[in-house]
């Protein structure tokens, strides 16, 4: 039986909800999920490895990738570009492996435009109160910045409609189990399997 | 936060695929899934308990249930009626509990008509050869009967299109894990959660 194409899983949600923590915990589980590596024009920090933490690109090369539609999504923060190279994702999916992208809400909506068959998961805080407390817990942001992130978070929650699934991040391990279940269930969807099984029904 | 309505999970598939075995194995797992009890007009066998194995009904009462649309599906085998009472399913779902029905393909398609929001899972043999070997393994059926079941099975596989998910029953425990994942994933579907979370986005 021929190997199915992998799934692109897009994990997103408001700043502070715990996307990074959930993704890191997922890595500790025994899954075949591959992790997409972003490209950026910023300089590598101490200990960062090209192709592991990021693909470090000169500005001209990044801009050529934008122009040639080689990025599933991209954004510019201050003076640096960040984005998701399309080639790595496409090649991995073609090998029958699932790929997960952990990105901001705006980036996820861009991916939806160019890759609508992806599985879009919105990671949700148990409450807005809890989200504020997580942002405060980082201890790195001023009250004004936190207020502004909370305003953005409320707007982002309204965009939940563009996603396929909503996973509450009440406890990291529970959120990870829900994400793993979503991946398993998506592989069992009739639409993904019907051709394979029609062949099976003809052969005895 | 108000409790979500439960899900109706319909597990079906060709005769011999192992629906009963998978359902029994699922019962041994720690889940909150409830098992629907069928109604029948046949006489109880030694040790069968009313309301546990079946709801045993007089013929007149069963026919009144058909007439009043109190069954999600029903069929007549030889001289006896069998069917799924609607009330138990509706009451259990309203309590926020999931209900699983394990039924034949024709019954599942009837349920689809009256309960389209159910989660329909088609249990699939790894191959038709394996299905024949499972039917032979029962040791209770003649070669003619097995041939006829195989013909029906091929027709039923064509009906897979009416289902939401296809689960391969290669190993019982793997099939059970896939079904549990489907149930978890369905509870995370955006459509089922969006109203709840829109309320959340308004309250801090």
Automatic annotation (TrEMBL), chains A, B:
Localization annotation: Cytoplasm
Keywords of this entry: ATP-binding, Cytoplasm, Kinase, Nucleotide-binding, Transferase
SMART domains noted in UniProt: GuKc (SM00072)
EC number: 2.7.4.8
Residues at which ATP binds: 13-20
Molecular function, one GO term: GMP kinase activity
InterPro entries: GK/Ca_channel_bsu, Guanylate_kin-like_dom, Guanylate_kinase, Guanylate_kinase_CS, P-loop_NTPase
Sections of the chain in a coiled coil: none
Zinc listed as a keyword: no
Gene3D superfamilies, A to Z: Guanylate Kinase phosphate binding domain, P-loop containing nucleotide triphosphate hydrolases
Catalytic activity field: GMP + ATP = GDP + ADP
Transmembrane feature ranges: none
Cellular component aspect of the GO annotation: cytosol
Principal location listed in the UniProt entry: cytoplasm
Domain Guanylate kinase-like: 6-184
PANTHER family for the chain: GUANYLATE KINASE, GUANYLATE KINASE-RELATED
Family: Belongs to the guanylate kinase family.
Function: Essential for recycling GMP and indirectly, cGMP.
Protein name stated in the entry: Guanylate kinase
